[in-house]
């Protein structure tokens, strides 16, 4: 079963990637390409999930008192 946090991560990655693709293509004078935004959102989602798996979720830090 897909966890909700993965869907939310993809949702925000999708929105931000489409916005980024639109702005950059407008600044360069190119046409907007929907597929580029989809590919970027998939890459960003996978990288975010991998980073969250690698970084420990430890609440006890050595320097914190």
Low-pLDDT parts are none
Strand residue percentage: under 5%
Structural class: mainly alpha
Treating each run of at least 4 consecutive H or I residues as one helix, how many helices? 2
What does the overall shape look like? elongated
**Termini gap:** 39 Å
Major β-sheet profile? none
Helix residue percentage = over 70%
SSE arrangement, N to C:
HH
Mean pLDDT: 88
What is the C-alpha radius of gyration, as a whole number of Å?
Answer: 16 Å
Number of strands: 0
Please tell me about this protein's structure:
The chain is an all-alpha fold and 65 residues long. The chain has helices at 4-28, 34-54. The model has no long low-confidence stretch (mean pLDDT 88).
Summary tags:
mainly alpha, 71% helix, 65 residues, 2 helices
In short:
With 65 residues, the chain is mostly helical. Helices cover 71% and strands 0% of the residues. The protein has helices at residues 4-28, 34-54.
Record the SSE blueprint.
Layout: H1 4-28, H2 34-54
């Amino acid at each position: 079963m897909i966890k909700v946090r993965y869907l939310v991560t993809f949702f925000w990655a999708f929105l931000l990637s489409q916005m980024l693709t639109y702005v950059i293509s407008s600044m360069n004078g190119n046409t907007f390409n929907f597929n580029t935004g989809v590919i970027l959102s998939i890459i960003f989602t996978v990288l975010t999930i991998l980073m969250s798996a690698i970084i420990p979720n430890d609440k006890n830090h050595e320097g914190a008192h």
